[in-house]
Each structure stands twice: as structure tokens, then as C-alpha cells.
Amino acid sequence: MIEIVSAPETTVEIIEPASATQWTPDSWRSRPIAQAIDYADQLALEQTCSQLRKLPPLVLPYQIENARQQLYQVAKGNAFIIQGGDCAESFYDVQHDIIRSKVTLLAYQSQILAAALGKPIIRIGRIAGQYAKPRSQMFERLPTGETIHAFRGHNVNSENPENREPDPQRLQLGYFYAAATLNTITQVEKELSRSVINTKAQHSLYTSHEILHLPYESALTTGVYNTSATFVWLGERTRQLDGAHVEYARGLRNPIGIKIGPTATPAAVVALLDTLSQNRDHYGKISLITRLGWGKVHSTLPRIIRAVQLSGHVPIWICDPCHANTVSTTCGRKTRILNAMLGELKETYVAHRRLGSHLGGIHLEQTGENVTECFDEVHVVEPADLGSSYRSLCDPRLSAIQAIDLVKGFAAFVKE
Ligand code: PEP
Ligand code: MN
């Protein structure tokens, strides 16, 4: 259903929105499910999901509505988002000090951004539920010749090669780990509001994760609210227009992010907006999280921005300078270079300014700890330096110092 039409300034390809049948928290089940988890025991999965349905919400509808109101201000250009946390959160990291350092990091970053931009900063963690991962390969072959499931996040299986069978019981664990994390976030925020980092005047930290595991997400959906997180996003690998994930996200009141990679066409982006935000006055309902790669922004992003502007939608534009700047070392370790990430942030900021659009936020994979997973020019310089504290379960995270330096570099660029 692709039609070419002529618009006054440019030629725009139009893709019709996905057909709008009656939405329910389970209407996604009739669509193709990308990245589905292959459970051996479907009955056990269903039993776990019935248990989950009875558990209390982790986030209440009024909190989701508050977030929607604040994100409306971001879409208007009156506020800015810092969103950050692990690629894959670990059950083992549900510890007070580790959570505290993540919350503190986001608070520092928001202070730096507030000073540079002169706007309120909305903090969103990739936290309290970022436990399911998409993978480019579903299976892994061991040196022994045995084939095992790829690691899919702690809600699904263990990172340990001996324990890779997807286990539905983990979904319940994930719910309780998320609840414990949320409780700790609340405690830490109270503590911070009495200390030098003054978060008193700010809203509380919002939680977010990728809505990858639809049986889990729909089990925690009450009416039009996904009560497992405030903000949820569709990944680059699960944003097919006619797919299950887009159908699931379509009916939610939660703010929705969509990852936009270098292969996304302007028409595909507009079609996603038409499908997920049928009412064009829903400012800030959708965040387009672009992850295009340093050096590739100017050849891809302007056409997307232009098409979105012509469509009449007013999404939030967030830049994820992580996922298209991942490289592998010769030893096969995934890493990122801080300078490349800053490069994509700057290019993205400039591309928006040139078109009268505005960047509304930054999305980062980071941790409050002193890890050595990404390169910078001071602390982690040689490939051997990566070895000393590489602990990520999935993609490389910025250490606290690197994450602050990156935000400072962006802040300095904006103030120039
Ligand atoms: C992620 O955010 O960890 C991720 C997998 O990103 P993307 O969907 O953009 O590749
Ligand atoms: Mn990642």
C-alpha cells in the first residue's frame, strides 16, 4: 500500500497506518511477533502471566498522566529529557549502592543540562524493568558444538551458558526486582532532596524499559495503562508497522518511544506516528529516539524531520548516540568511543536547529559505577584497559565519569 504523492516542497512517500481494529491489551496476539521468546512450556508461561495479572501496579495511572503532561512541555521545547541506564539491567545489581549511584548520576546530569539549557530537565531511567533484550542471533554455538539460546535478559534466562533455557518463573522474579528497585529509587530520592543535589523542585525519576516481552507487558496492563513503567519504548528490531509490538503500543496512554535506526525511511517513520498517535494534537505522546551513527546524521535525519513536520505530528526528538556507534575490539568485545557519541549528539542537535525543530532529550547506556566498557581519552584508552572492569551483561555502558563528561561536552557545545 505505497503511494507516491506530490507535496509542495518535496516528494513524500506515504505509507498507510496499520489497520485500526479494536485494540485490547491482547490484540497484539494476532500479529506476527518479532523477537518472540521460544518457551518450551507454554502452559507454565500462561500460569505465570495469570499470577502477574493479580499483582499490584508498579506505576499508577496518575503518574503516567503526570509524565504525559511534562512530556507535552518537552514537545513544545520548554523542557528536556535525560534518559539513561543499563543496556540490560541485572537481577544481581538490585542493591542499594548500585541503584543509588544510578539515580545520583541522572540527578547530576540533569543539573548540568538545566544550567546549560535553562529548562526543566525530566529524568527517565532505563531502570526497574529493563530485563528483556532483542538479539540479532537467537542462538549461540558453544566451542563444544552445542547450540544454546542467546542471552535474552534476566526476565528470560541467565547469562550463564549453562542456564540459557527460557524460564517463565523469571518473569515473576523480574516483577519483584523491579518493585524493590522502585522502592530504593524512592528512598534515594528522599535522601538526595536533603543533600547538595537538590531534586526537591523536580518531579521524581520516571522508569522506562523496552516493551519487548509482550506476554509480560500485557499481563501488567490495566485498561490503557502499562503499569510496569511510566515510559516504554519500541526497539529498532520490533517496530514493524503490522507487527505485534506496534499493535500493543497503539492503545496505551503511556508515553511511547520508538527507536529509529539508519534504515528507517521518512515514510515509515510517519506511518508509525500515524498508527501510534492517530490524534495529531497528542504533543509529546511519541518520542522518536534516533540512533543513526556519527557521520550519518546529516544524510538521514533531515529528510525524516522534514517528513514529520509536513505530517503535522509533533513528537519529541531524543538522540541515542549509543546504538549506531557500537564497535568490536579485535578480542570480540563490544565497546563505544565517547567522542563518537558526542559527535552524533552534536550533529543531531545541529540538524534539528537547521530545520526549526529541536532536540528534546538524550538517551544513554550508562551506569553509576566505575566500569571500563567504553573508550574515552583519559580513563580507558587502550584495549587492555577494557579488561579491568567490564561487567555489562549486554552492550557497553558509560561509566559515571564518562556519562558526566559526555553531558558536559554536549552542554558546552549548546552554550557556544
Ligand atoms: C537498546 O536500547 O538496548 C537497544 C537494543 O536499542 P535498539 O533497539 O535501538 O537497537
Ligand atoms: Mn543496548
TrEMBL record:
Pathway in which the depicted protein is active: Metabolic intermediate biosynthesis; chorismate biosynthesis; chorismate from D-erythrose 4-phosphate and phosphoenolpyruvate: step 1/7
GO molecular-function terms, A-Z: 3-deoxy-7-phosphoheptulonate synthase activity
E.C. numbers: 2.5.1.54
InterPro entries the record matches: Aldolase_TIM, DAHP_synth_2
Any Pfam family: DAHP_synth_2
Family statement: Belongs to the class-II DAHP synthase family.
Known cofactor(s): Mn(2+); Co(2+); Cd(2+)
GO BP: amino acid biosynthetic process; aromatic amino acid family biosynthetic process; chorismate biosynthetic process
Keyword presence, Transferase: yes
The protein's name: Phospho-2-dehydro-3-deoxyheptonate aldolase
Binding-site residues, Mn(2+): 87, 323, 365, 395
Keyword Transferase: yes
Annotated catalysed reactions: D-erythrose 4-phosphate + phosphoenolpyruvate + H2O = 7-phospho-2-dehydro-3-deoxy-D-arabino-heptonate + phosphate
Gene3D superfamilies membership: Aldolase class I
Source organism, top-level taxon: Eukaryota
Annotated phosphoenolpyruvate binding sites: 126, 236-237, 259, 291
Keywords per UniProt: Amino-acid biosynthesis, Aromatic amino acid biosynthesis, Cadmium, Cobalt, Manganese, Transferase
Cofactor mode of binding and number, as noted: Binds 1 divalent cation per subunit. The enzyme is active with manganese, cobalt or cadmium ions.
